[in-house]
Amino acid sequence: MPDSPCTADRGTEAATAVSGSVPDPRRAVSSAEPTPEVRTGRCECGHITYEVTGVPDDPHLCSCRHEKRISGGPTVLWAGFPKNTLTWTGAGGEPTWYATWPTLRRGFCPVCGSQLVSVADNSEMIMVTAFSLTDLSGTDPVGHSFREEAVPWMTITLRPGPRASQSASS
Q1: What angle do CA 96, 97, 99 make, to 5 degrees?
Q2: Cα separation of 167 and 86, whole Å?
Q3: Hey, which end of the chain has fewer CB within 10 Å, N or C?
């Protein structure tokens, strides 16, 4: 099997970008729109920090050879957010970018080397390494890409995803 990054091939299912919309005049004035959740993240040394807005989409593990080589670990936990909600907030500005696949770029800290994000060409989503987030709620993995390439000693229990809940009630 070729070394291929899981984040380039994964689609998004439920993510929609948060955008400024015109309020519906038929709505009662007293009903307030929920404020989108803002999360922060950072590299190990704190040189690169960021904010993303929304609920983590498609939190999943990847054990492809590509990810294992980049991370030095048996798997990487990814969580997606609308790309237009990511803001680089720290003194380091944007991370250093490296193309790890013809259609995929990774952002990492040039000081400590922490891998922070992955973005596929033409994608509306940016995947963040979930463990770079300050708040890990909602990042329990619902999938495991390249599970057949996982190390044999690793046992993983996945959180039931929305599809599992829908098919159970059908």
Answers
A1: 155
A2: 33
A3: C
> Using the 8-state DSSP alphabet, how is residue 4 labeled?
-
Rounded distance between C-alpha atoms, residue 168 and residue 152, angstroms: 30
Q: Rounded to 5 degrees, what angle do the CA atoms 48, 116, 50 make?
A: 45
Interior angle at CA 160, CA 75 and CA 80, nearest 5: 55
pLDDT digits (tens, 9 = 90+) for 25-50: 333 444 455 667 999 999 999 999 99
DSSP assignment of 79-122: EEEEGGG-EE-STT-S-EEEEEETTEEEEE-TTT--EEEEEETT
- What b/e readout covers 4-32, taking b as 16+ CB neighbours within 10 angstroms? bbbbbebeeeebeeeeeeeeeeeeeeeee
Kindly state the helix (H) or strand (E) to which residue 49 belongs, with its residue range: strand 49-53
Q: pTM score, two decimals? A: 0.73
On whether the CB atoms of residues 53 and 36 are closer than 8 A, the answer is: yes
Distance CA 43, CA 110 (A): 10
Q: How many CB atoms lie within 10 A of CB 38?
A: 12
C-alpha distances out from residue 54 to 84, 117, 160, Å? 11, 16, 20
